[in-house]
Amino acid sequence: MSQSRLTELTWREVRRAGERGIALLPIGSQEQHAGHLPMGTDTLLVEETVDRALDLLAREEAPPEVVRLPALPFGHSPHHLFAAAVSLSAATLGAVLDDVLDSLVTSGHHRVMVVNGHGGNDEIMRLAVKRFALRARVTVAACSYWTLTAGEEAGRPDVTPGHAGWFETSLMLAAHPRLVRTPVPARAPVDPPPLFDNPPHPGLTVERHGEWERVDGATDDASGADAALGARLLDDRARGLADAIRAFDTASRPTR
Fold this sequence. Notes:
Blueprint: E1 3-5, H1 11-20, E2 22-27, E3 30-31, H2 41-58, E4 66-68, E5 85-86, H3 90-106, E6 111-116, H4 122-135, E7 139-144, H5 166-175, H6 211-214, H7 227-252
Parallel strand pairs: 1-4, 2-4, 2-6, 6-7
Antiparallel strand pairs: 3-5
Family: Belongs to the creatininase superfamily.
Protein name: Creatininase family protein
Organism: Streptomyces parvulus
């Protein structure tokens, strides 16, 4: 058994898998994605990337053993509550991740990888895994799927990942075209431009009250999104994630 889903395993199979395998947890969100993408976009895209990466690994002669957990569908999305979201506070999301990690270790897992699909989760996720590894005998990795690439499809780094913009819409057109409301409208120019994804100086994090509502919940113009390029971008992220899983497996594999 090299690739399996936690939901479909017996408890004895989980125990055996935990001895040498990696438990992989996708996390996403439920939040507005402008007027053309569904609430679950972040969850759908992280699941798609994870499943494509695991399919790639399953074709290898000696793939890493991975137990794929159900995706956590809720994230930290208070900045989208102006329209619609199901949001956990930062403290609650951190506590949920802590409880899930603790459960996995208690159930026999020694290695865990968290793969994130929502920008608002990123800092909370990374802090959670760092804190957990200080108190539990476990090796934990964390990443956001859009940051891992195989370097073969550059796309448009200026609007990646964005929110409900060109990047996410292209990926959704490739992965779940029936869920994209078309035609995708052009985004009207916004003046002054938002600061949350375009800070006035490198290295600054800038948030301005009411910014997300003012830009109608989208970071950039999605009207030029392309399904074919979205498929290549998804495949590139899947290959990047497969590389990351393989590297994590090699670096953290039990010696006995």
